TrEMBL record:
Boundaries of every RRM domain copy: 16-94
Recorded GO MF terms: RNA binding
Protein name, UniProt field: RRM domain-containing protein
Cell compartments where the protein resides: Nucleus
Lineage: Eukaryota, Viridiplantae, Streptophyta, Embryophyta, Tracheophyta
Keyword Transmembrane helix: no
Basic and acidic residues compositional bias, start-end: 125-135, 145-159, 171-187, 220-232
Region annotation (Disordered) ranges: 105-258
Compositional bias ranges of the Polar residues kind: 247-258
Amino acid sequence: MSHFGRSGPPDIKDTYSLLVLNITFRTTADDLFPLFDKYGKVVDIFIPRDRRTGDSRGFAFVRYKYAEEAQKAVEKLDGRNVDGREIMVQFAKYGPNAEPIRKGRIVEVHAKSKGRSRSRSPRPRYRDDYRDRDSRRRSRSRSRGRYDRDRYRHKERDYHHRSRSRSLSPDYHRGRARGRNDDEGRRSRSRSYESASPARRSPSPKRSPSPRKTPPSRDGSPDRRSQDERSPSPRSVSPRGRPAASGSPSPHNSDADE
DNA sequence: GTTGAGCGTT
């Protein structure tokens, strides 16, 4: 039981953060603590996780008390198989406590200028060389991809909107020129619209084939929803029996009902 | 239940 990150950063004034990547989504700070603590004094371990799902994002931050120990852990734990996945340990570049690292300049003492002293790197990481955004943007995980796409949605939408505007100009002109086929013109426009926003279609494909399952009253009745919210149980005024009992013109039915 | 480039909270 570790309370890392539970009470926020304990003291990052003299701590060095290590970024651990490529860790499994099930790896927790408790699993990394013994691993990193073995090589040095771990002050705190923080694993950013989703606030909605609460799942790990796949990387963790390990704070060491001493830079030398952190460096050692990087060399030793970098490339270590954890939970069946090879983790990548490296100094955090961005962060609140990334400054001490720059000041300390842990390595470069005996390390060759060619590269960090990661003689323990069993596998060459192309990411270091191919750090282009194109590379990481080409393939992305599902969970993160969704948010990222959402973020870029404004741009895409703007682009589409503009494009549609231009496209609509000639389309409209042509459609109007035809004139004789009002039906066809409308249909064409309709199709164009669908093709213009394929991702904007209602995320409820089930509703289409089964419109009966979803009552239309709740679909287009925002007013009703408000009322419902105010009166969460308007029909449940009598949970024990049916309120219509007094006005029920079918006494015999009542027997069958209950 | 899935996934796999990256950089963090009270």
